[in-house]
Amino acid sequence: MGKFDKYKIDLKGMQADSCKYEFLLDNLFFAHIDGPEVQKGKVNVELTVKKTSRAFELSFQTEGIVWVPCDRCLDEMEQPVTSSDKLMVKFGHEYAEEGDNLIVIPEEEGESNVAWFMYEFIALAIPMKHVHAPGKCNKAVTSKLNKHLRTSGDDDAEESFGAGEDIVVEDEAEEQIDPRWNELKKILDNN
């Protein structure tokens, strides 16, 4: 029995018009799938397969937690994920992907392994930005970041990564313009 055999859905042998499956994806699943976005997690997936006249509609309801690195301190953090996704599967002569949500599988085979699709739906449910809650980042890393963020010695502001604020370095650069440039701008404005 292969690693992902329990995720095979027998579409050809499906007797009822609708079937439900439930999968609990744990750390072992993510280790076997070996994807770059998620290595650990505990996610519950409810799959409903509906037979239509020409295809099968697979509806995935995903809910759980994955562990991803914090964008700020790189420590692992819990990231809740929730998604609802649909996938259409139809029979054909050979395997093909006809768009984002439509796949064709050989009719002789008659089954579809949904392991990779579940992984992709989970990975797509992770927000682009994932950071710890304010004050929860690794203190050693945030102090190093704050040390390297400050550009001048007279910077006594308590602006830090641990404060929960998004720091915009661009604004600081505009405030610290060399006074000689200001004088040159005045000359240009007068002409």
Summarize the structure in short.
With 191 residues, the protein is an alpha+beta fold. It folds into 2 domains: 5-125, no CATH class; 139-190, no CATH class.
Describe it.
- By secondary structure, this protein is α+β, with helices and mostly antiparallel strands.
- It is 25% helix and 34% strand.
- It has five helices and eight strands; from the N terminus they run ββαββββββαααα.
- It has helices at residues 27-33, 115-125, 139-149, 169-175, 179-190, and strands at 8-10, 18-25, 40-51, 56-69, 76-92, 96-97, 102-106, 111-113.
- Strand 6 and strand 7 form a beta hairpin.
- The longest helix is centred in the C-terminal third of the chain and has 12 residues, at 179-190.
- The chain is elongated and about 80 Å long.
- Residues 154-159 and 164-171 have low confidence and may be disordered.
**Overall geometric form:** elongated
Which value, in Å, is the CA radius of gyration? 26 Å
Overall strand count:
8
The largest sheet, given as strand count, sense and whether it forms a barrel, is: 6 strands, mixed
Q: Tell me the helix content.
A: 25-40%
Give the overall average pLDDT: 84
Low-confidence stretches: 154-159, 164-171
**Beta-strand level of the residues, as a percent range?**
25-35%
Helix tally equals 5
**Pattern of helices and strands:** EEHEEEEEEHHHH
The total domain count is 2
Strand arrangement, major sheet: 2-3-4-5-7-6
Main structural class: alpha+beta
* Cα-to-Cα separation, first versus last residue: 81 Å
